[in-house]
Every structure is written in C-alpha cells, then in structure tokens.
From TrEMBL:
InterPro entries: AceGlu_kinase-like_sf, Asp/Glu/Uridylate_kinase, G5K_ProB, Glu/AcGlu_kinase, Glu_5kinase, Glu_5kinase/COase_Synthase, Glutamate_5-kinase_CS, PUA. It comes from Tahibacter harae. Transmembrane segments: none annotated. Signal peptide: none annotated. Keywords: Amino-acid biosynthesis, ATP-binding, Cytoplasm, Kinase, Nucleotide-binding, Proline biosynthesis, Transferase. This is Glutamate 5-kinase.
Length: 384
C-alpha cells in the first residue's frame, strides 16, 4: 500500500534559509557520493540565488565519501579515530560535489561544539558565515568530525542545522530527507499512517510519532529532525521537512510551495531574538553613550558605533551582554542592552573615535560596530 501524500501549502516568506541534506540523499549504492539527488537540490539552491535569496548548506556525507577512498580496509572504520580519519579524507569530496553545480564559490565551514559554546568563537563563526553570504558564496557547513570527541560532539547534522539557522538569523530551516514528511506512524511499516502537514508545536505526542533511523547511511531519524525543529522554533525559526528524492517536491519548493510538513515557530524570529537579548544575564559592565547615540539606539534601528561612546564602566569580555546607558539632566538611564563585539579595555581605547580608526588603534578589527543592531534591544520609554 502506497502512503498517502502530503497536501501542498504555501511557503512563508523568506530571505535566508539553512538547508540540511543528509547522507541518505548523497550516498551512492556502491559507496561514495552520488549526484542523483544532489542535482535537484542544487537546482533549488540556484533558483533561490536567482531570486535574491541566501542559502547556507549543511551537508552530510564526509564519512561515506572517505570510506569509498579506502575500500581496501572498510571493516576497520568503526572507532572514533577511524571515523575522524574518514571524515578528513571525505570533506574535500563533499565540497567538490557541491562546487560542480555552481559558478559561484563554495566555502567549507567546519564547526565544533566549542565553537558554539564559546561566545567569542560563536561570534567569529557567525561573522565568517555572514561575510561569506555577503560575498555571494555558498557556505557548506559540517561538524568538524576530525577533531571532535564523543562527549563534545554536536551529535547529528539535523541539530547542527538548527544551531546554524539561529547562528545566521535564518528565516527558515529546510530539512531534505528521503521521506515525504512527518506521518502519524512509520509509513514504511504501518499502512494506517497518515501525513501530518502542519505542526503548531512539537509536543510529546508529536515525538511519539517518530521512529528510528530510516537509512544505514545516516545517523539521524525522524526524532532528530523533531529535535531540530524544536530548537529552531525556540529561536523563532520555522522548519520545513520534505522529500529531497522527489523531483516534483523540489520544483514546488522553488515555486514557494511545500509538499511536506511545516513546523511553526511559537514566536516570530525577531520577537524570540529580542526576548532573549532582553532577558540574558548581564556581564556587569556598562557602556555610556552620548545623546545622539541614545536617540539612534532608542529608535531601534541603529548599531552602536565607537563615535557615540563616551565611557565604559566595569569589565566585560568580547561576546558578553552589556548594559548601554546615557546621562540626561544629571540622571543616568539604561537605554539598551546588547552583545559587545569588543572587550571593555578595547572599547575604552576606541571610544569617541571613527570606525575606520579601529584597526589602527587596536592593531586589528572585529568590525565597525561595537554592538550590532541584530545583537541589541532597546529598552522602552528611554532614549527617544
């Protein structure tokens, strides 16, 4: 019995998306990587680029590609060191696979748990991905399996994709798999399974629908995709789950139509981000700004530049959440809070200067803003 198909639905509006492609779509039957399904996915990415959209690709397949290069000893590749070696061998093959489909450059970005746990490295990773998108490149992200140890591994590329979606402030997380979407039960074994087109929230009842891994080539099943959708929803990002082996589903996706499952975010991306910024713990340091900067920040659309800073109180590190205050009529008001791109000592040295002078003053630069507008929330009723 053939499983019932998901209904078509309109995609939400999006400008930037993270697309996760699993090993089951890339692994060849005889080992190594295949272009069979990668071509259709690449055509969707190219169509998105032509529409002026940005895509970050999270691609599996490195271990499978590496294993194909050492066919003489396939049975030895089971331990951690062996998997790391296979990943190192296969990473270049994965990038080469995707590069063959595009005229634009393809960039490899390898991330570890520490890159995302350490705030400074998190900011560096985000800055790199944003700059790659600005340059028109296609970033291809994977976990850095060659150095990660089991206790610090991110675990699977579904969850990595959700983290990357939050990292780059994506509008959507797209997960390409080898099944049409979420069903009430495993449609491969249960003929009564019915398709689930729309999920308002991933509840225990939704998790109960998930089975185990569906392919020997991959590490994740439906459960890790639900985990990823949950993480994305918490960041205000919706998730679309669709069949990457279905050429028609991919053509529909390029036309802003989904035949699969949509997982909705509880809040808008902006609301979720601003809520987190408003409630994240402060580092204890504070940046004082002049009246002009206070007005610009109070409007909610400006970044904090060094020229508007008149002083720094306390100590904080790059990546810390800091308070931003101003003085009006001999009274000090907190007007905003945000993530500082520079440490307190660095802010003291560049305060009141032009952004173009940062590198000459410090000997390096993390960018022209001290607090970027995407990392800043204005406090209502002040600074206007």
């Amino acid at each position: 019995m053939t499983a019932r198909r998901h209904s078509e639905q309109e995609l939400p509006r999006w400008r930037r998306a993270v697309l996760k492609v699993g090993s089951s779509l890339l692994a060849a039957n005889g080992g190594g990587l295949s272009t069979r399904y990668a071509l259709g996915l690449a055509e969707f990415i190219a169509a998105s680029h032509r529409a002026g959209r940005e895509v970050v690709l999270v691609s599996s397949g490195a271990v499978a590609a590496g294993r194909a290069l050492v066919r003489a000893q396939p049975e030895t590749a089971h331990g951690l060191a062996a998997r790391q070696a296979l990943a190192a061998l296969g990473q270049t093959t994965v990038v080469a696979l995707w590069q063959r489909f595009f005229d634009r450059p393809v960039a490899q970005v390898l991330l570890t748990h520490d890159d995302l746990r350490n705030r400074r490295r998190y900011l560096n990773a985000r800055a790199t991905l944003r700059e790659l998108l600005a340059l028109g490149a296609l970033p291809v992200v994977n976990e850095n399996d060659t150095v990660a140890v089991d206790e610090l591994k991110l675990g699977d590329n579904d969850n990595l994709a959700a983290i990357v979606a939050a990292l780059v402030d994506a509008d959507l997380l797209l997960i390409a798999t080898d099944i049409d979407g979420l069903y009430s039960a495993n449609p491969r074994t249960d003929p009564t399974a019915v398709p689930v087109d729309d999920v308002a929230a991933v509840t225990p009842a939704i998790f109960a629908m998930a089975g185990g891994a569906g392919s020997s080539a991959g590490t994740g099943g439906m459960r890790t995709k639900l985990e990823a959708a949950t993480k994305a929803a918490a960041a205000g990002i919706g998730t679309l789950l669709f069949n990457g082996t279905d050429a028609q589903a991919l053509r529909l996706l390029a036309q802003d139509r989904l035949r699969g499952t949509r997982f909705r975010a509880a809040e808008t991306r902006l609301h979720a981000r601003k809520y987190w910024l408003r409630h994240a713990p402060l580092a204890g340091g504070c940046i004082r700004v002049d009246a002009g900067a206070a007005r610009a920040l109070g409007s909610g659309g400006a970044s904090l530049l060094p020229g508007g800073i008149v002083g720094v109180r306390g100590e904080f590190a790059r990546g810390d959440m800091v308070e931003i205050e101003t003085e009006q009529q001999d009274q000090v008001f907190s007007i905003a809070r945000g993530i500082s791109q520079y440490a307190a000592a660095e802010v003291r040295r560049i305060a009141g200067r032009k952004s173009a002078e940062i590198e000459s003053l410090l000997g390096y630069s993390y960018g022209e803003t001290v607090v970027h507008r995407d990392d800043l929330v204005a406090l209502s009723g002040v600074g206007a």
